[in-house]
Input
Amino acid sequence: MPRIETSELTKRYGETLAVDRLDLSISEGSVYGFLGPNGAGKTTTMRLLTGLTRPTSGTGSIAGVPITDRDGLRPHLGYLPEEPPLYEQATAYEQLEYVAGLRDLPERATQERINTLLDELDLTADATTRIADYSKGMRQKTAYIQAVLHEPDVVFLDEPTSGLDPRAARTIREMILDLADSGTTVFLSTHILPVVEEVADTVGILSDGQLVAEGDPETLTQRAETGDTQTLEDVFLELTSTDPAADVEATDG
Ligand SMILES: Nc1ncnc2c1ncn2[C@@H]1O[C@H](COP(=O)(O)OP(=O)(O)OP(=O)(O)O)[C@@H](O)[C@H]1O
Output
């Protein structure tokens, strides 16, 4: 059974069709790179799949649980949103222990896991400082740990390397691959295409709420007409262009 499955999933905000009849089927241990221009509907899709907003029509499930069953979904998913909610007055330790408590995680094993993750992300020395005094990168690291702490079946990551220095960004990329190796499904939305090329086994490109291409990066970047390889950026620009002249240029080039 796919870990993420949707059928004709649709979200409308007034006149705006933010997500338009989306069909997804993503398996266990897959890293799915979810691409699309600004306003394409990526965040709305993630909010639908994490139960934060309800579909206008269509259906979806995470690990077999319908996306309309918000409480049922909670143990199965982790979500790193673009602007993660953190308690400014708490330290990273307090924040993570609080989240572990909410999720009823076993105390001792969780404590060890928190320590390991803080250490891997070079955050141990700052883990007793208030989040209010954190840099953007330190917040991002704390929020990432919060999203994966309970070892969910599916983790949704919105720009996970945003604000991170090169070392931390590399650590996160390695962690994503480790998560997938251990069977977690990673749904990754980012505008940083080299990150997608490095970690994703499948790429989906969203444009105006519709999935306009999907496949493994190698197949997507292979030109059917010439047999040449183009970059993921070329493919992205071609498929999401709103200017017909740009399409011609891209195919001729
Ligand atoms: N709460 C809302 N109310 C009204 N319209 C919304 C709402 N949320 C999103 N939209 C609209 O839905 C469309 C998709 O927005 P969404 O935030 O999902 O795009 P995105 O692909 O995540 O963009 P970005 O890359 O800029 O983050 C946009 O036209 C946006 O204006």
In short: Confidence is low (pLDDT under 50) at residues 247-253. The domain at 4-204 is CATH 3.40.50.300 (Rossmann fold). Strands lie at 4-13, 16-26, 31-35, 57-62, 65-66, 77-80, 154-158, 185-189, 202-207, 210-215.
